[in-house]
Specification:
Layout lengths: L5 H12 L2 H7 L2 E4 L2 E4 L12 H14 L4 H14 L5 H6 L2 H8 L8 H21 L3 H7 L5 H11 L7 H9 L8 H9 L10 H18 L3 H10 L11
Antiparallel strand pairs: 1-2
Length: 243
Amino acid sequence: MTHESFKSLYQRAADRKGGKLALELLLGKRILGKKLLDDNAAEESISQLTDDRVLAAFTKQIFKSGFVWRVVENKWPDFEEHFFNFNIEKMLMMPEEMLERKAADPKIIRNYNKVKTIKANAQMMFDISLEKNISFAQFINDWPSEDIIGLWAYLKKHGQRLGGNTGPYALRLLGKDTFILSSDVEAYLRAQQIIDGGLQSKKSLTAIQAHFNKLQNESGYSLTQLSRLIAFASGDNYVQVEA
């Protein structure tokens, strides 16, 4: 089966969003004179991040999963204070009794199972630093985007509660280019018969990665932009913007 081309996908999204300019703005472009440029002004090389910020991003996304995001954001300063600003070494030295006490504090979201992931994911990051003699931020930075599902699989296998969309959302929070398998994106992939089984099966993820690689080769757009484009062209997402 021949799947939809980038050109066709792009045109449908543009028609639904009020034209090319409006679509490009939604995809993360900015206007400079009469030119559209990628909006990289706020981006920072992941390799320049310290690992405490990576652990913080993982933890924030884990707590947001299945919970009200606004509450997590409001309580986040207390999370930072309670867990030593997510310092890897300090987290690894924390005894279980202290972790239990902190998990019971009403200043944070009291979920011991999620709190335990902080130490577990700190251990994953520490192990990589020892094994490869690089920071975990550098490890993420160096992972090739054409195999982003491989990084997802690594986080799921070696970390805790980083499977599903939690890991990908955390990676995007850090600035790593990745697609997100939202309900609209999943519906599109099934309609195009790119996948027909479980969304997170190895077969499906391999087919999804291959399709995104194909679209990227056709367009030069990032994986982040392409997953947004698919969402804008699919489902009930008809809201337009004025550009």
